[in-house]
Amino acid sequence: MAGHSKWHNIQRRKGKQDAVRGQLFTKISRDIYHAAKEGGGNPDTNFRLKVAVERARQSNLSADSIQRTIAKATGTLEGVTYEEIQYEGYGPQSVAILIDIVTDNRNRTAADIRHIFKKRGGNLGEAGSVAWMFERVGQISAPMNAQTDEESLMLELIEAGASDVEANDGVLQIQTAPEAFRAVRDTLDAMDIPYEDAELTYLPSTTVALTADAADEVDELIEALEAHDDVQTVYSNAVFPSGEEEL
């Protein structure tokens, strides 16, 4: 698996229960943010937001955190203006790191992120310093059942705009261009095919293979970045050693 995703981090740190719980909350908050950003902040009229909020409650994410995330996405928090920023930098072993930020104080957040990089052997870079190494794509994972006509489904998805569709162990892995992401996702909805994950993400065009020691250093940096309140998503071009997922 090229790159570094939140779910990948969770798998690598199975033994660190607190970290796993924090990662789950981060993903849930991100899902709420994007659902509200796309369809508005009212769960009664935004089904995706309703599902995300229900999942957050089941995971014991506080009501204040849920409302704050929705307010960030919709810009409705009184007296506060949020902006989306993307920071770029290098971690240990010259691993490229891309960070999606939502903040109400650009200067404060920049100082915080710079400090996190510096403390853990990395450097916050200038705009464009690593973004050229990543491609924006849509990714969707959809489980299939015994009744699924795999070939027909793949054709439907390709007609809807999917750029790549693969079936592995009963799960469809779908990739799209950003502009086709919603149409492909809506096609699955129309066919009553549930999906486990559906997100716009960044995939690296070049990767850096890490030793076990270097993997720990990079993981520590990414974990610290993800723990920051203003960080929505962290991407990297790190390739972790085989078997690290089971730690």
UniProtKB/TrEMBL annotation:
Signal peptide per UniProt: none
Stated family: Belongs to the TACO1 family.
Compartments where found: Cytoplasm
Principal location: cytoplasm
SUPFAM superfamilies: YebC-like
Protein's name in the database: Probable transcriptional regulatory protein ACFSB2_19815
Domain TACO1/YebC-like second and third: start-end pairs: 82-238
Keyword Transmembrane: no
Top-level taxonomic group: Bacteria
Keywords: Cytoplasm, DNA-binding, Transcription, Transcription regulation
